Amino acid sequence: DTAVSQTPKYLVTQMGNDKSIKCEQNLGHDTMYWYKQDSKKFLKIMFSYNNKELIINETVPNRFSPKSPDKAHLNLHINSLELGDSAVYFCASSQAPNMNTEAFFGQGTRLTVV
Amino acid sequence: GQQVMQIPQYQHVQEGEDFTTYCNSSTTLSNIQWYKQRPGGHPVFLIQLVKSGEVKKQKRLTFQFGEAKKNSSLHITATQTTDVGTYFCAGPYNTNAGKSTFGDGTTLTVKP
Fold first, then answer.
1. Inter-chain CB proximity A100 and B43 less than 8 Å
2. Residue A52's pLDDT band (boundaries 50, 70, 90)?
3. Which of A48, B61, B77, B102 has the fewest Cβ atoms within 10 angstroms?
4. Average of pLDDT values for A27-53?
């Protein structure tokens, strides 16, 4: 029973397309995150929701829009995809906000924009 | 900007040698966490340190939190090939400064 699951695992798409990545956690956590990991393995926080409220919104292009329909789900929609968006996107969850407690990560979505 | 700085970025060791990665913060941290990411995998939580000067051990791994709560280290004794991966430290998100949480990571390779 996967704690944090995200789909799809791989996503290959053309420039200009719009795509979504979905994430679900069954841990009962209040906080969820989206991270971007580039080719150098740097992990950069993008967004975080706590109880469906956006609490972290790092400087990312507004082509990226998170949506949290409920505490257990956090989706990421990306409009007008660009080559530079290619990366691995990780969803994570934790009991307390702002990375103050252990975070559980999903398996990642490898996005390739061609 | 980065809240926590981590060095080295890469470390290559012979199996059996020791390994250490260091994290430094410009601000006092309420806690620090360590994660391990295997090649092709996702970050997995290892430990959280909260107290000043805290030292915790997990088998061959020793984690330390500095007295000023601004630095931390992870030391692996007698590395094994199963230790390969990228080790990250992570501090709490600084809402005032808008700074990210994870260090840049140290990628460890172990030669058998």
1. no
2. confident
3. B77
4. 94
Residue whose entry in the numeric block shows the structure tokens 């280290």: B73
What number is the average pLDDT over the span A39-64? 91
pLDDT at residue A2 greater than cutoff 90: no
B92 to chain A: which residues are within 8 Å by CB?
98-100
CB–CB contact B93 A48 (8 Å):
yes
Which residues in B31-105 belong to E strands, given as ranges?
32-37, 44-49, 55-58, 61-65, 71-76, 85-90
For A84, phi then psi, to 5°, come to -70, -10
Report CB contact under 8 Å: B43, A56. no
pLDDT at residue B37 above 80?
A: yes
Contact residues, chain B, for A40 at CB < 8 Å: 104
B101 contact A CB<8A: yes
Specify the amino acid at residue B3: Q
Question: For the purposes of burial, counting CB atoms within 10 Å of the CB of A83, is it exposed (0-12), middle (13-18) or buried (19 or more)?
Answer: exposed
Tell me the pLDDT band of A98, cut-offs 50, 70 and 90.
confident
> Which residues have C-beta within 8 Å of that of residue B81, sequence separation ≥ 6?
B15, B110, B112
Q: Which residues from chain A sit within 8 angstroms of residue B30, using beta carbons?
A: 100
Cis amide leading into A69 (omega within 30): no
pLDDT class of B76 with cuts at 50, 70, 90: very high
H or E element, residue A25: strand A19-25
